[in-house]
Specification:
heterodimer, A: 114 residues, mainly beta, five-stranded mixed sheet, four-stranded antiparallel sheet, 44% strand, globular, B: 116 residues, seven-stranded mixed sheet, 11 strands
Chain lengths: 114, 116
């Protein structure tokens, strides 16, 4: 499985934008980029995913580099409730027989200051 | 919808004891997964199931068994608990390729297990 590299921790102030980077230099042409987050004492939750184009949803935006070797999760206005561990994960495309397995790294611990 | 639920929430076992963790989902998902999370680490896949009656090994299957007798339930068993199995266990479920594009796993709240 292709690996991802994320900073161990980042800090932000409330209501400011947050850019969480992820490097994945060995990504294959068909790997999807997924982001999950884990709030304290909870199970992970899906945030967003993309393949080549930038993506937006109600939670965040995902900016993918043109060469796909890196991506950035953007939280437009951080709130205290966004304090969590954020995981960047590469997944096989649906036509592969990996049955949607997720391989988690250590993620980035995001601290949001009031 | 309750989503993914796990029973129990907490458990303390003595070394050598056995127990079963129950995961239930009400979203008609085909795929179900069991992960464990140790302090300061990401989740690791123990076993998974792609449908009723089928199971497969994940990354760290030793010391665990699983069963999927009903589509909505996925059981994780520890036959002889060891201190190394002290961890937080998460269950997850997702749609299959035949149900739709696999892109999101839904996770339960976790079971905190301590083996002394």
């Amino acid at each position: 499985d292709a690996k991802t590299t994320q900073p161990n921790s980042m800090e932000s102030n409330e209501e400011e934008p947050v850019h969480l980077p992820c490097n994945h230099s060995t990504i294959s042409g068909t790997d999807y980029i997924h982001w999950y987050r884990q709030l304290p004492s909870q199970g992970p939750e899906y945030v967003i995913h993309g393949l080549t184009s930038n993506v937006n949803n109600r939670m965040a935006s995902l900016a993918i580099a043109e060469d796909r070797k890196s991506s950035t999760l953007i939280l437009h206005r951080a709130t205290l409730r966004d304090a969590a561990v954020y995981y960047c994960i590469l997944r096989d495309p649906p036509f592969r027989t990996s049955y949607g397995k997720l391989t988690f790294g250590q993620g980035t611990i995001l601290t949001v200051h009031p | 919808n309750a989503g993914v639920t796990q029973t129990p929430k907490f458990r303390v076992l003595k070394t050598g004891q056995s127990m079963t963790l129950l995961c239930a989902q009400d979203m008609n998902h085909e795929y179900m997964y069991w992960y464990r999370q140790d302090p300061g680490m990401g989740l690791r896949l123990i076993h998974y199931s792609v449908g009723e009656g089928t199971t497969a090994k994940g990354e760290v299957p030793d010391g665990y068994n699983v069963s999927r007798l009903k589509k909505q339930n996925f059981l994780l068993g520890l036959e002889s608990a060891a201190p190394s199995q002290t961890s937080v266990y998460f269950c997850a479920s997702s749609y299959s390729r035949t149900q739709g594009v696999i892109y999101e796993q839904y996770f339960g709240p976790g079971t905190r297990l301590t083996v002394t």
